[in-house]
Every structure is written in structure tokens, then in C-alpha cells.
Write a structure and sequence with these properties.
The complex is a heterodimer of chains A (116) and B (117).
Chain A: E1 3-5, E2 10-14, E3 19-21, E4 24-26, E5 32-39, E6 46-52, E7 60-61, E8 64-69, E9 74-79, E10 88-96, E11 105-106, E12 110-115
Parallel strand pairs in A: 2-12
Antiparallel strand pairs in A: 1-4, 3-9, 5-6, 5-10, 7-8, 8-9, 10-11, 10-12
Chain B: E1 5-7, E2 10-13, E3 19-24, E4 31-37, E5 44-50, E6 53-56, E7 65-68, E8 75-79, E9 88-95, E10 107-108, E11 112-116
Parallel strand pairs in B: 2-11
Antiparallel strand pairs in B: 1-3, 3-8, 4-5, 4-9, 5-6, 7-8, 9-10, 9-11
Classes of the chains: A mainly beta (116), B mainly beta (117).
């Protein structure tokens, strides 16, 4: 079974600065998807960024980028130019590419606080 | 913008009572998921539907939980009887396709926060 570990329960960053959230995972599969989801207080979870394991190039979405290290099974999220609206719980998630096994396996989350 | 709808947003009940949660996925989404998120943890899948059929309910406590999606559109999750340990956020999500192996993004609803007293 796959597992996802987020070792940072809480992080804080000064507004406009850069912060990196860590995630490691364990799997025996060679191909899979990795995701970062954002869950603002009292609002629904939204997808921030995704990475296909077969792609060596790290995914980027505006101020959000990942550092995907397949051999180390590491998948960190970098947020540049942090904004107050980035304050939320961030979850790292794993999904198999095997058709029919669509479920997401989540880590325990990291609470990100933005300091004005 | 289309969203996943859930109701109620909050539910307080006493143990041994029955509770039900409703989810309306994004129109046209074939796959529907119910996740449970205990405070301080990440969501865990309870049940997954493809249209009206259950694809995965291996983590659903079937002695007290049931889920249905009769017409392959909206879905109901029921707990009877509720226990103290059922206090959690219940999240519904939907995705467009099934079994394609693609990234198939899951869109989440706002959740129902259940408190069992």
C-alpha cells in the first residue's frame, strides 16, 4: 500500500517570501501521479499542482512549483512571493495510474501561515 | 463555475442516532468519491462510485455506513448508528472520467462537518 508523509505540521512565512513544504511517499509502482491540494479555512479543497511520475521536468503553476525527486520519493512544493491568500492547509497526495484505482492517498497536511 | 454541492454543511447529533449526508457532483462527472477527514489528518477514501456502481468500498465500515448513488448522479452517505469516533469532516468529490489512467482531477465539495455527542 502507498503511504504519504508530511513531516511539517505547521510552517510560517513572511509575505512576499518563499516557502517550501516537504512531502515524501512510499510506493512500489513505477508510474503514478502526485498532487498538492490547498484547503483554505471553511472552504473546499482545490488542486494546486500535479506531477506525472514519468515526466522528469518539474511542474510549475505560476508562483507554485515542485521539486520531484523520484529516486528519493520526495515531492516538495515551493511557493514564491507568498500572499495572504496562500494561508491554508496543504495536502500532498498520491494516485496510481492503474485504471480503476482512482483514489487519492493523502498526507496529514501542513498548515501554512502567512505573516503580513 | 460548476462546483460540487454538499448538505448539510454542519451536523450535530447524539450517538446512536442516524445521520445522512447529500452530495451533488459536477454535472457530467461519472465518478463520485466520499472521503472522511478526521481532525488533524488527511482525507481517507470511504467509497467510490462509477455512475451508480460501487467501485471501491473497502474502507467503508459496512456495519454502520451505507452509500448509494441510485441514478448515477447525486449520492447519499448514511451512518446508523452514529458513534463518537465518527466525528469528522465528510468530503465529497467528483471527477469526469474513470479508468482512463489519466490525471482525472478530483473536484471537492465544501464538506459536512459531523459532531457526535
Amino acid at each position: 500500500a502507498q503511504t504519504v508523509t508530511q513531516s511539517q505540521p505547521e510552517m510560517s512565512v513572511q509575505e512576499a517570501e518563499t516557502v517550501t513544504l516537504s512531502c515524501t511517499y512510499d510506493t512500489s509502482e513505477s508510474d503514478y501521479y502526485l498532487f498538492w491540494y490547498k484547503q483554505p479555512p471553511s472552504r473546499q479543497m482545490i488542486l494546486v499542482i500535479r506531477q506525472e511520475a514519468y515526466k522528469q521536468q518539474n511542474a510549475t503553476e505560476n508562483r507554485f512549483s515542485v521539486n520531484f525527486q523520484k529516486a528519493a520519493k520526495s515531492f516538495s512544493l515551493k511557493i514564491s512571493d507568498s500572499q495572504l491568500g496562500d494561508a491554508a492547509m496543504y495536502f500532498c497526495a498520491y494516485r496510481s495510474v492503474r485504471g480503476g484505482n482512482e483514489k487519492l492517498t493523502f498526507g496529514t497536511g501542513t498548515r501554512l501561515t502567512i505573516i503580513p | 463555475e460548476a462546483e460540487v454541492a454538499q448538505s448539510p454543511r454542519y451536523k450535530i447529533t447524539e450517538k446512536s442516532q442516524a445521520v445522512a449526508f447529500w452530495c451533488d457532483p459536477i454535472s457530467g462527472h461519472a465518478t463520485l468519491y466520499w472521503y472522511r477527514q478526521i481532525l488533524g489528518q488527511g482525507p481517507e477514501l470511504l467509497v467510490q462510485f462509477q455512475d451508480e456502481s460501487v467501485v471501491d468500498d473497502s474502507q467503508l465500515p459496512k456495519d454502520r455506513f451505507s452509500a448509494e448513488r441510485l441514478k448515477g448522479v447525486d449520492s447519499t452517505l448514511k451512518i446508523q448508528p452514529a458513534e463518537l469516533g465518527d466525528s469528522a469532516m465528510y468530503l465529497c468529490a467528483s471527477s469526469l472520467d474513470f479508468g482512463t489512467g489519466g490525471s482525472n482531477e478530483q473536484f471537492f465539495g465544501p464538506g459536512t462537518r459531523l459532531t457526535v455527542l
